[in-house]
Amino acid sequence: MIRIFNHYVSKMAFILLFLELLMLLASASVASVLWFSDGRGHFRADSLYLSSLTFALVIIFSMSALGMYQHSSREGLRTTLIRIMPSFGLGFTLLSALIAVRPDLYFGRGISILVFAVGATGVVITRLVVFKSAESALLEARLLFVGGGQLAHECIELASNKFGFHQFHVIGCVPVAGEENCVPDSSLLPIGESLLAMARKYEASEIVVAVANRRSSGFPVRQLLECALGGVRVIDAATFFEREACQIRMDSLQPSYLIFGGGFDQSFVRAATKRAFDLAASGSITALSLPVMLVAAAAIVLEDGGPVFYRQERVGLDGRVFSVLKFRSMRKDAEQDGTPTWAAHDDPRITRIGRIIRKLRIDELPQMFNVFRGEMSFVGPRPERAFFVRQLERDIAYYGVRHSIKPGITGLAQVRYQYGASVEDAIEKLQYDLYYVKNNSLFLDLLILIDTVQVVLFGKGSR
Q1: 233 closest CA partner among 432, 1, 10
Q2: Beta-carbon neighbour count of residue 408 at 10 Å?
Q3: How far is Cα 392 from Cα 383, in angstroms, rounded to an integer?
Q4: Which of 428, 314, 306, 438 is nearest to 364 (CA)?
Q5: Where is the protein found, in the record's own terms (predicted)?
Q6: Is 337 helix (H, G, I), strand (E, B) or coil?
Q7: Among 9, 151, 221, 375, which residue's Cβ finds the most Cβ atoms within 10 Å?
Q8: Which of 403, 367, 359, 382 is nearest to 281 (CA)?
């Protein structure tokens, strides 16, 4: 994994994106050399370069929006083709919309067909080569875990399920005296050699310290220091989860990790760029979705009259309460007893129109006005109701940390996890929110925005 503006990105995914960008640019350029001239034998270089770059970037965006860089399973030729076809279809639609505004980007019918055909072929070949390379044992990270308790069990489970660009081979666990064993006996390594000797013997690329109590007499501090000085990378479980799952896990979190772990950028430059991003993203989406909002408003009125909008108090930056604006998706008497209630699966309070606009996230669109007013950001932790916040702050440690930045319309928890409707769900989402609060950047905001397109298109996590 590599870090770009504090966010962990798979090396293989980064290499794949870079190679595909070059492949798409080459496809457009080569095809243009064959077809694209001004009739006098001279290439229109300005249009050629701009059209080729636009084609490559739009296709890369389309593949990103449909999850093409979130590799989680083995991909053969058939699976690759199935995943690429809708991406190129979305790319064709977006390019058509751009060409309607900028006709000079149009290659021409013949060249466009050739560009798409050569580009798709190049992407398929690139993916097959990269995926086959990713399966090589030479690219596997060999992990040696220190500890055999519940934390080590969760780390091994994550490493075993991490099936994609970044794959692991778990060597085993070195048990620590006084810790309850929670891993299979087959995963335990014999004690006798030093950690450094074991790391070199098994060719470990990394040692992960997964011990909950580091103050016990059995914790091998000197041996871990010896490993670090001997050139073997040593990390703790919190760093492992942050890097591989984009989570700051509650069960492995120490206050010192938040204090000394870096991140939490609240500088003037970050605030200014985030505000500019909020206004640009919200303004663009408001303009594009205005017809959709008008149709949604009319549908709500036709189903059961008004009101169209629903205001609800939510907790925002520094614990301040504000009124969030949404399209009404539930009956007017959804909470007639006055007690806030989590939305459940197939909740009977949701109207027919409400079910549709929730599935497509249309009910969230009026919150753009909260962004314009400065109460919310476009990307950030989702704001919760004060009633639930009081309960969650009482039951969950560090829950208040998510209020150190503005809440958002979309966020890392929204694109990585299902709809939250319980304290357990709130804990899972908090782990993503803490990661975002710690590592937030414009780069991460853009990635979340792209992932949001996939969530909206496929209706993931809605209720």
Answers
A1: 1
A2: 25
A3: 13
A4: 314
A5: Membrane
A6: coil
A7: 151
A8: 367
Indicate left, alpha or beta for 213 from its phi (over 0: left) and psi (-120 to 50: alpha): beta
Model confidence at 78: pLDDT above 80? no
Residue spans of alpha helices (H) in 36-108: 45-65, 77-101
Helix axes 45-65, 11-35, angle to 10 degrees: 140
* Structure tokens that stand for 318 in this block: 């520094």
Strand residue runs (E) in 369-450: 377-379, 408-410
The reported pTM is 0.85
Structure tokens at 135: 């399966």
Domain extents for the chain?
2-134, 140-245, 268-458
Q: What is the DSSP string of 286-329?
A: HHHHHHHHHHHHHHHHHHH----EEEEEEE-GGG-EEEEEEE--
The rounded distance, in Å, linking the Cα atoms of 217 and 122 is: 57
Long-range contact list for 151-157, CB < 8 A, 24+ apart?
151/210, 151/211, 151/212, 151/237, 151/251, 151/252, 152/182, 152/183, 152/210, 152/211, 152/237, 153/182, 153/183, 154/210, 154/237, 154/249, 154/251, 155/208, 155/210, 155/237, 155/240, 155/241, 156/183, 156/187
- 3-state DSSP call for residue 235? strand
pLDDT tier for residue 45 given thresholds of 50, 70 and 90 = low
* Burial of residue 136 (number of CB atoms within 10 Å: 0-12, 13-18, 19+): exposed
Planar angle of CA 107, 109, 114, nearest 5 degrees: 80
**3-state DSSP call for residue 148?**
coil
Rounded Cα distance, 163 and 12, in Å: 13
At 15-43, the pLDDT tens digits run 889 999 999 998 887 766 665 554 444 44
Per the DSSP assignment, residues forming a β-bridge with 309 are 327
Contact (CB, 8 A) for 24 and 122:
yes
Q: Judging by beta carbons within 10 Å of its beta carbon (0-12, 13-18, 19+), is residue 177 exposed, middle or buried?
A: exposed
Q: Give the Cα separation of 143 and 120 in Å (integer).
A: 37
